[in-house]
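Review form for a predicted model. The reviewer records the input and the model, then writes brief findings.
Reviewer: anonymous (R2)
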Amino acid sequence: MAQDETTFECLRCGRCCSNLLAEDRGVLRGLTLLPGESELFPQPLVKPAVGVGRRPHGRGFRVTAYQLTEDTCPHLEADSCSVYPERPAGCRQFPFSLRRGPEGKVQVGFDLNCPALVALIEENPRVSVGSDARLHAEKLLDVELEAMRSPKRAWFYDLRSEKWRRYSELMDT
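Model under review:
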């Protein structure tokens, strides 16, 4: 790391633990949970998020990610995460995200709702994504990339309608 760079340090303020539901291409989605992370939450609060196969519930269909159905995380207690050491990848990568941009290049996104990130950028505009945050962001990106590789076999679960939507049909919205 260059001498004039600094790294992000979480304030554990809890702001990232609310406003978790978001509309994406006409699909209402919650905080993405990788397989194995759904056990951190009461099962009635977890639904599938991304699946791959010919059709949902069909032979060979598999869920590749889950999602939290609540707008506020149930582990938020007194503006702090009660499961911080075990928090899911989506929480660990916050306030950063990775997306495939034009020509397939990976782009880093910043969530400016995070007061620690805003303060960091004001102090030093050369922000680096730490290896732990990047590792978890890459795991989440892998789920999206798998869907992009087979858009006719990839499905997103819409929390609003409680129905699966084919990824290829959402690409135009």
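Findings: The chain has a mean pLDDT of 85.
Further findings: The helical segments are 89-93, 115-123, 131-149, 167-170.
Recommendation: see findings above.
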